[in-house]
């Protein structure tokens, strides 16, 4: 009996650590971490990464649905995403935004179409082949600035951490994705030109040098961030 209880206790403490990946569960707005899935679209993907870059799951993760809230955030202010578990795989971060089309809200919009532009990224630190370091290692949140000139309206904000530990084979880069629902307010009047927008899925083929890469050996001399340039 005693052994059984101990075994159960061991299982309860070990299993989540073995199976649980890190998830972007909350938005950070005005310096406050909001409740999990209050403004972040819930999904049905308990803890697995998305690996098929052509899948609709790439947009806002598998089974994404409307979150209850839309967070008001000022153009030019810092917002972010908090994780339930610190990042423990090596790789970069990208953040994209999409303006919600007329007639929809950030809650109803699923992010389809050529609507996305990149607003932030965090890559690797290289030194010509001696070392490669990933500044995203062990992060429990990632924050960035909403472009101050961005026109007001509802937006989706999509964050991805891309784990590259097995990415030397095609289709083995792992995407950890969430989408937040925000309303940007302010005095901005700008939007990215339509020719600079990308679709997700569509933005990646999986053959990019930053996605199909052996990060272990030989140590990469440089690292090429996947996706378009940050809109500026
Ligand atoms: C952030 O602060 C602004 C005021 O500057 C406020 O209107 C907005 O509702 C706040 N957002 C959240 C999510 O609390
Ligand atoms: C991340 O945490 C692990 C485990 O605590 C540690 O070994 C590693 O050095 C940390 N990495 C960074 C970049 O801080
Ligand atoms: Cu893993």
Automatic annotation (TrEMBL):
Top-level enzyme category: oxidoreductase
Stated name of the protein: lytic cellulose monooxygenase (C4-dehydrogenating)
Localization in the cell: Secreted
Cleaved signal peptide residues: 1-20
GO molecular function: hydrolase activity; metal ion binding; monooxygenase activity
Family named by the database record: Belongs to the polysaccharide monooxygenase AA9 family.
One GO-annotated biological process of the protein: cellulose catabolic process
EC number(s) given by UniProt: 1.14.99.56
All copies of domain Auxiliary Activity family 9 catalytic, residue ranges: 21-217
Needed co-factor(s): Cu(2+)
Organism: Tulasnella calospora MUT 4182
Pfam families in UniProt: AA9 (PF03443)
InterPro entries: AA9, AA9_LPMO
Catalytic activity: [(1->4)-beta-D-glucosyl]n+m + reduced acceptor + O2 = 4-dehydro-beta-D-glucosyl-[(1->4)-beta-D-glucosyl]n-1 + [(1->4)-beta-D-glucosyl]m + acceptor + H2O
Keyword NADP: no
Keywords: Carbohydrate metabolism, Cellulose degradation, Copper, Disulfide bond, Hydrolase, Metal-binding, Monooxygenase, Oxidoreductase, Polysaccharide degradation, Secreted, Signal
One Gene Ontology term, aspect cellular component: extracellular region
